[in-house]
Every structure is written in C-alpha cells, then in structure tokens.
C-alpha cells in the first residue's frame, strides 16, 4: 500500500482525500519510485476542479522526485537506486508510485531532490516557451506575467541570461521586489498600475516582441495592447479563467498579431525531447543563471491547504510537498 492524495469527485481543495492505495509491481516499461519531494503546479488545481478532466478516481499531481526502488521487465533506462524526477505524469501526490520509465529524468549531481521537484515542470515550461515557442534573441524585449510565481522566477532569470530585456508583472510590493531580484529589469504591480501603459513607456511606444501569459482571462486583452506589430502572445495558462476570443479581427486591429496556446505535451513528444529540455534546465541551474526559489513547503497530507494558498495567489516561487 502507498499513501496518496486522491480525487474521487471534482471540486475545490476539499476534494483532495488522503487514502491508502495498493501498489503493484512495476510492469514492462515501468519503475517503482519512492518519492522524496512533490512539486505543486496550477495544472494540479485544473485537474482537481475538472477544468482539465481526468477519469475518476485519480491520484493528483504531475511532478515529483525520488529514488527508483524496482524496475519492470526489460527496463534498462533506469536502475534501482537511481535518483530521478518527472513531470507531466498524473499520480504524483503519493509516497511511492509506479511511473513510466520514458518519463523519468536522471537528477544530476549538484541538484537536490527538492530542487528537482520544484523546477522540472515549471522549468520545462519556461524552456519550450523561451527556446521553441518564440526563440528569444539578445536585444529583444519580453513581458512575463506573474513574474514572481514558480514558472516566472525561473523564466525571467533564464530570459535575462539570453540577453533579453525582461518586463514582469506581479501582484503587490513584496512580489514586485521578488521579481526584480530574479531577473526582471522592470516590474509592474498589476494591482495598482496599468500594465499596458507602463509597457509602452518602458519600450518608448514600440511594445514588446512577445508576451508570455499564464494568467489568462484577466490579462488577455491588455497583453495584446503590449505587443509590437506582428508580435506574439503565448497564452500558456488560465489562472484567472479561460480565455475566449470570439472576434479574431481584434488581432488585425491591434497590429496583425499572433496568438498561440502551447502545451508541453506537444513540445516533448519523445524521450529525447524531454532529456534535451531537462539538460538545458539543469545546466542553467548549475551554472548559476537560474537561482531556484522554493517559497514554501507543506507535508503531502496538507495538499489541500497548499492548493488553497496557490489559488489565492499567496505563494511566491515554487511550492513543494513532502511525503
């Protein structure tokens, strides 16, 4: 048996239930992982609420780090005793679990388990956005919403190391300071300031080359107003609600703009894509280009409280659950 945080019916944080589930032996293509740290991400809340539906019941969570305790027949990519992490694989809120081997990433020396669990999903999101969705070039200017969040703190440091001018938004003076300390050249307090107006001031009226927006509904139209003609809005999340675009003509009126809604599933279809992104991320951390901020930890059994804090925008940096 293994202790898990399960969802039997979708709903608010109260839908998370602490239970003991059976743990079988790993089959072909699987490994058993004793988990030492579990990452908290907004996608966990979307799945729990039913916004991103999964078959019920399910174990919550999508990211963790731990140690391989057993492998299935024919498995050679990992062995017992290996330190590994993974992301994008539901079932992470557990003390031990079976995981698909093709999703397991070796943790390099110099990266501890909590750091690995805190950064893989968020860091790979930053990777595909900065290197694939819009490959950021030195001299370009970007806008990153929620710059003090877990993904934001990673991405803004990484973008700055690429030579970009980084503008961020954050909610409240504490988060503004946090974002300024982690890569942003300018940070706008969206609770007190009009971010499109200030972006135009910072760019001398030109607008930014690309906006990375994980907030969604509350920032969508303002994000379009921040772009230069033919710029790109990468809408990669919906923390404030789902974006609806009933009139595509708005993109023409605001400058022949581009909008995309990327997800990691399509950027990491094969194991080699996953390992390429993970290597780039870990190298950036080990080089010092990215300094990891774990803002808060919770015992795994307090996952519901962690969800409430995340959804109420009470967190900065990454949040880690400890089995």
UniProtKB/TrEMBL annotation:
Keywords assigned: NADP, Oxidoreductase
Xref: InterPro entries: ADH-like_C, ADH-like_N, ER, GroES-like_sf, NAD(P)-bd_dom_sf, QOR-like, Quin_OxRdtase/zeta-crystal_CS
A molecular function (GO) term: NADPH binding
Alphabetical list of Pfam families matching this protein: ADH_N, ADH_zinc_N
GO cellular component: cytosol
CDD domains: QOR2
Residue ranges constituting the Enoyl reductase (ER) domain according to the UniProt record: 11-321
Protein name: Quinone oxidoreductase
């Amino acid at each position: 048996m293994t202790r898990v945080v399960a969802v039997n019916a979708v709903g608010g944080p109260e839908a998370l239930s602490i239970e003991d589930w059976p743990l079988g032996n790993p089959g072909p293509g699987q490994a058993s992982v004793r988990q030492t740290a579990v990452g908290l991400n907004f996608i966990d809340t979307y799945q729990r609420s039913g916004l991103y539906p999964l078959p019920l019941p399910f174990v919550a969570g999508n990211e963790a780090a731990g140690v391989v305790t057993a492998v299935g027949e024919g498995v050679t990519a990992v062995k017992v005793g290996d330190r590994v992490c993974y992301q994008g694989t539901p079932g992470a809120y557990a003390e031990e679990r079976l995981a698909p081997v093709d999703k397991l990433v070796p943790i390099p020396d110099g990266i501890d388990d909590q750091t690995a669990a805190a950064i893989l999903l968020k860091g790979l999101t930053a990777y595909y956005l900065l290197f694939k969705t819009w490959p950021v070039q030195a001299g370009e200017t970007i806008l990153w919403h929620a710059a003090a969040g877990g993904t934001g703190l990673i991405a803004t440091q990484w973008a700055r190391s690429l030579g970009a001018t980084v503008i961020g938004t954050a909610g409240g003076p504490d988060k503004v300071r946090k974002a300024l300390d982690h890569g942003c050249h300018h940070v706008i307090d969206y609770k007190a300031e009009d971010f499109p107006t200030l972006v135009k001031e910072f760019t001398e009226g030109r607008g930014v080359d690309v906006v990375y927006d994980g907030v969604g509904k509350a920032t969508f139209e303002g994000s379009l107003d921040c772009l230069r003609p033919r710029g790109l809005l990468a809408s990669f999340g919906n923390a404030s609600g789902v974006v609806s675009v009933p009139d595509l003509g708005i993109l023409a009126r605001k400058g022949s703009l581009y909008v995309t809604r990327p997800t990691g599933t399509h950027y990491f279809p094969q194991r080699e894509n996953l390992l390429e992104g993970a290597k780039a991320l870990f190298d950036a951390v080990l080089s010092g280009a990215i300094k990891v901020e774990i803002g808060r930890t919770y015992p795994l059994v307090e996952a519901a409280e962690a969800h409430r804090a995340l959804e109420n925008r009470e967190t900065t940096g990454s949040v880690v659950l400890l089995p």
